[in-house]
Amino acid sequence: MYLNGGQIIFNKLIQHKTRNVFMYSGGAIMNLIDCFYNQHKINYFINTHEQHLGHSATGYARSTGKPGICIVTSGPGITNMITPMLDAQNDSCPLIVFSGNVPKNNMGTNAFQEAPAVEITKPFTKWSYCVDNIDELEYVCDEAFKISQFGKKGVVHIDLPKCILSNKKKFNIHYFKNNKVKNNKVKNNKVKNNKVKNNKVKNESSINNIINVINNSKKPIFYIGQGCNDYVHELRNLVNKSNIPVTTTIHAMGIYNETKPLSLKFLGMHGSVYANKSIQESDCIIALGSRFDDRTTGNLDLYALNAKKAFEKNTGGIIHVNINNDEIGSIVNTHYNINSDCGEFIKLITNKIQYKKRIEWLSQINHWKTKYPFTYNDTSTLLTQDVLKMLNKHLINKENYLFTSGVGNHQMMAAQFIDWTQPRSFISSGSLGVMGFGLPAAIGVAIGNPDKTVIDIDGDGSFLMTLSDMKTARQYNLKNLKVLLLNNKKLGMVDTWEKLFYNNRITATDNSHAPVFYDVAKTFGFNVLKCDNKKDLNKTISEFIKTPGPLLCEFNVGSTECFPLVAPGKALDDMIINNKNTINMANMETPS
Ligand SMILES: Cc1ncc(C[n+]2csc(CCOP(=O)(O)OP(=O)(O)O)c2C)c(N)n1
After folding, report:
1. How far is it, in rounded angstroms, from Cα 251 to Cα 266?
2. Averaged pLDDT for residues 188-209
3. Is the pLDDT of residue 179 over 80?
4. Pocket residue to mutate for ligand 1, from 428, 435, 512, most atoms within 8 A of Cβ
5. What is the pTM of this model?
6. pLDDT tens, 99-108?
7. Helix or strand or coil: residue 453?
8. Residues 183-188: contacts with CB within 8 Å, 24+ apart?
């Protein structure tokens, strides 16, 4: 029996239990796409642009834990994929991208729809490889699944010259009878170099040392990143058992229920005053599965000075646990480092960590919580924060919902004004910050989670970038997809920076020529709602919850800034808290 290259890959996708793929066709990839004709083993979804399908695959992967599979053509197909691939890589999302390319003997001739695909993607993927020979294909596919998911998750790009996809290879009948992933023996030097290490905690004495540091500290704090998202029960158990307060990155929100007293919500540039202040005040920062992204540290020279002092006095320090060794010590000179999967580390320390009442430390934090909650300048005009607060009030069973967002003030305000109670429930472009992520990502989340309702919280600027994907939501009749559009008729977040840091020189942030989104969504076949004032807010949100998708609700909102804000170059606890006041908590007396 002979199979061509496309059929070999298709067979491999089935072996790896792939259920859903996101694709966009074109000449160079047709041999692979043709395999999806008239079969019921793998569902395929067609977005309106390769960038959109990349974000859909990302939303799918981040909400299900399975790798997102993308199939695109050569040239513009793969170049349109660069943004979602970089976004997925930076946010540690497992993605496998198959791209077509021109036949091998046309490569380097500037042929029609030729792009130096591997050269473009190599610098930012976990593995980027152009298949050279049909005999490599099975091994390459198995490696793609392994590498994308192993250790710190990320992106694998497999480039497929058209001749490889159309060439045929003979298989014997046993291959089809025993359709399981085998340890393929084909060796290829170029492929062999891609080793991923499984990092385990090896040194027991270093663990005991860390436990002593935590147990002897006076003001410990957990700083949790998405590396802990697979260990919710373990992490919650550890926090409760130790009575240590916890703050998270945006990607780890909900891993510890934010309605509980020990939660300090998220930290960083727009994070809570009390989380930022607690990090700065702490004598022992326990960073698990996070990477000290600059948005969470502020000015590094002024970061965590108390924990650094405590280390010098042997009374504390900064502990960093990360599965990726390259990220340890790369931004902050941490004092106690463990290169390990967080779950394993949590398991090792939970029984040895001491419960302490921490009366002084926790009452100090509570004082900051009461004095500096997330707040805004409430006016008679409907504002983004009003809408999000009301949404939060209406969402009784949060475990039934998943959220995506665009990038901007609406994204940060969603992080602030929704109480996150479940991990992996806010799927947003964190590191790369890609406007336009919200709708296509919501499509992938909705496909991967048919039992949940997916709400894309979006801004007018972000939504305009990818709104053609309303076609896709309608095409697959995604009844569980809803868009909550916050239309302030401007690129709000940048507008704020122009006001605060560019002397009010408002340039290139006006969006008043955007269409009436309510009408546009209707044309795409969406159910539609709208709301222009506070009076109708309660009623509109309750209709929004009840109305099936695909649905868009346009909220015409006034202009508002997102505070607190750590200005560029400032310390984490030097925050602008509203348009009249800056507090530098580093200079403040802390009540005891
Ligand atoms: C693709 C892309 N281009 C530019 C930016 C820079 N940027 C960050 S936020 C923002 C404004 C977002 O406006 P909108 O989506 O309307 O949200 P708002 O801030 O008004 O809530 C811009 C231009 C970006 N993050 N992504």
Report:
1. 9
2. 58
3. no
4. 435
5. 0.95
6. 999 999 999 9
7. strand
8. 184/138, 184/139, 184/142, 186/135, 186/136, 186/138, 186/139, 188/132, 188/133, 188/136, 188/139
